[in-house]
Design brief:
The chain is an alpha/beta fold. The protein is built from 9 helices and 6 strands; from the N terminus they run H-H-H-H-E-H-E-H-E-H-E-H-E-H-E. Strand 4, helix 8 and strand 5 form a beta-alpha-beta unit. The structure holds cobalamin. Cobalamin binds next to helix 3, helix 4, helix 5, strand 3 and strand 4.
Length: 244
């Protein structure tokens, strides 16, 4: 456990998430933030592992849908608090870029996607959040409408990761693959899959998403390395890996 998150608060938050107790989870999150915990550390070191454990218990039939829903609600409440904290760090006037983000068609998991969106905002990007269960065509329409630089798609289920491919296929069909940095992420996606479908980049974490977007956008603006070339610089320390 990182020293940046006080141990007692981390433990209280983890227990509250495992028990699906939104009230205790938000109280523990407030306590951790007030004690100076880094919001991102809280997500990466407590929220993600706790919710992953919830998922494992659900898979092993140790808990059932009502408990999964309660844990999801607690996770949502916590991430809203953390997002508000991260938003305070934003505020640059000229956006660093425009990001269209959503959870893909068929997927209603949006906790991670919301965190990625908040982090982009906190780093000075303008974010168009399309919400959840977003069809490929909607990603494209919004990207064109808002003149986006980045399309970011989140997928948490094996069944919905195919929707990430639909976005990539659509971009190819309309000949706009090189126009946008297309990032994929979420539990059901990895670098291999991202490469396979022809996404521009993949990141394992929310901070990795911002890092990889920055690297790819910088390459595009300097023309040093075309976005979809094979020479993208890996940002492995943050789990961010440009795919192509
Ligand atoms: C909470 C939860 C729910 C909540 C969702 C609430 C919400 N508003 O999101 C509820 C209860 C509604 C739910 C419903 C279901 N769920 Co659910 N759920 C989870 C759980 C426990 C946690 C997910 C989570 O929020 N994690 C925390 C966040 C912070 O992490 P994250 O999303 O991975 O995001 C991080 C990174 O991945 C990355 N990231 C995320 N998006 C993106 C995007 C980009 C572009 C980038 C670069 C990075 C990036 O950054 C984030 C921060 O670091 C997972 C377990 C797990 N192992 O993931 C199961 C899980 C995803 N659910 C599962 C299932 C099966 C379901 C249901 C089908 C259950 C049912 N029978 O009805 C439904 C699905 C409904 C649907 N159509 O989507 C399965 C999926 C299995 C699979 N492999 O297909 C899992 C894995 C549980 C399990 N082990 O069985 N679920």
């Amino acid at each position: 456990m990182s020293a940046i998150v006080p141990g007692s608060a981390a433990e209280a938050l983890r227990d509250a998430l495992l028990n699906g107790d939104s009230v205790a989870a938000t109280a523990a999150t407030r306590a951790a933030l007030e004690a100076g915990a880094d919001p991102l550390e809280l997500i990466q070191e407590v929220v993600v592992p706790a919710l992953t454990e919830v998922g494992r218990r659900f898979e092993d039939l140790d808990i059932f849908l009502p408990e999964l829903i309660e844990a999801g609600q607690a996770g949502r409440a916590v991430s809203e608090l953390i997002e508000a904290e991260m938003a305070k760090k934003g505020g640059s006037v000229e956006p660093e870029g425009i990001v269209v983000i959503g959870a893909v068609k068929g997927d209603i998991h949006d906790i991670g996607k919301n965190i990625v969106a908040s982090l982009f905002k906190a780093h000075g990007f303008k974010v168009i959040d399309l919400g959840k269960d977003v069809p490929a065509t909607r990603f494209l329409e919004a990207a064109q409408e808002y003149k986006a630089d980045v399309i970011a798609a989140s997928a948490l289920m094996s069944i919905t990761r195919a929707s990430c491919r639909e976005v990539a296929d659509l971009l190819r069909t309309v000949n706009l693959s090189d126009r946008y940095v297309y990032l994929v992420g979420g539990g059901s996606v990895d670098q291999t899959y991202a490469t396979e479908i022809g996404a521009t980049g993949y990141a394992k974490t929310a901070s990795g998403a911002v890092d990889v977007a920055r690297v790819l956008l910088a390459q595009r603006s300097t023309g040093a390395v075309p976005v979809r070339s094979t020479g993208a610089v890996p940002v492995r320390s943050t789990g961010a890996v440009p795919v192509r």
